[in-house]
Amino acid sequence: MEEICQIVNDFKIAAMNAIDAENRCRFALEIVEATCKEIDADKVGIRLSPFTDYNELGDSNPGALALHMAESLNNLLAVRKAFDGTFIVNGGYDKEDGIKAVAESHADLVAYRRSFLANPDLPRRFELNAPLNAYN
User: Fold this and answer.
1) pLDDT tens track for 34-85
2) Which metal ions or organic cofactors does this protein require, according to UniProt (predicted)?
3) Which of 41, 82, 103, 123 would staple 36 via disulfide (CB 3.0–4.6 Å)?
């Protein structure tokens, strides 16, 4: 009986989280819509950070984090299919991951922000398959 009560509570929490997530999406979409009315929509972008550890999204349980990342990747691919503009991804991509993301049409471009900060010559290092400095 205790297990059933816990499962019922889990569904209740999931429903509340779903409503909260819809509200977060609505907020971002309203900002994008208002911005597009003021300037050319081709000049408007939005950054989504599904793997970032803030706003209570972090998880110290590696198994749960791996599941969250897999679900986020599936959601990212769904956004990619629905979006017809230039789609740029970032977040821990190495050279091979970036090539694969573009080759499999998961993205048009890959941003290597932290790697680029630690390696200002990043394109040359990629070209030479040279080791990268770790970012701090």
Assistant:
1) 998 999 888 888 776 655 555 555 555 555 555 555 666 677 777 777 777 8
2) FMN
3) 41
Q: What is the DSSP letter of 41?
A: G
* CA neighbor of 112 nearest in space, from 103, 124, 67, 104: 124
Q: How many whole angstroms separate alpha carbon 34 and alpha carbon 60?
A: 37
107 exposure class (CB count in 10 Å sphere: 0-12, 13-18, 19+): buried
pTM value is 0.59
Nearest to 17 by CA among 73, 61, 55: 55
Cα radius of gyration (the chain):
19
Q: Give me 115's structure tokens.
A: 């790697």
